[in-house]
Amino acid sequence: MSGAAPRPDPFPPRSPNPPKPSPGFHGAVTEFKRRLIEATLAQLGGNRTQAARALGLQRTYLLRLMREFGVNVPRQAAHAVVQSRAAAAAGERHRAVR
Description:
By secondary structure, the protein is an all-alpha fold. The protein has a single domain (27-97), classed as Orthogonal Bundle (Arc Repressor Mutant, subunit A), CATH 1.10.10. 63% of the residues lie in helices and 0% in strands. It has helices at residues 24-43, 48-55, 59-69, 75-97. α1 (24-43) crosses α3. It starts with 23 loop residues before the first helix and ends with a helix. The model has no long low-confidence stretch (mean pLDDT 81).
């Protein structure tokens, strides 16, 4: 059957950069939660207790979500929180001595 017309290839070649599938509903919700947690932490200088309070969550649940979504407190923010706590503690000791 050399005279037959060629059949189209049922498996066309793959594009080098195929489009990424949309994340769907659950993926979009997860991404929203992650961004909200990151933004809240950034706004509050990395203070997880204040971020949990601002989001209406228990601190332990916020920490679990952070682990689940791979959210880390930036080192600079965490360092600033430690410094502010140390300064506050020093101020309290100074007032108590007076």
